[in-house]
Amino acid sequence: MKYKYRIIVEQDEDGVYIASCPALKGCYSQGDTIEEAVENIKDAMRLHIEARKIVGELIYEGF
Asked: Would you say the pTM of this structure is higher than 0.70?
């Protein structure tokens, strides 16, 4: 099953891009470029969802 979530990418004071997914509390990643941050947050989101499924938590399917 595919899920769609909104992500936020911001650049910090050191020039690193920080990506987060507000719908998945605690799901953050980063990258040296926007593209890298987006790819990294996708991996983090996939792992976050897999972990929630393992413990039997419900997954909110969108934004």
From this structure: yes
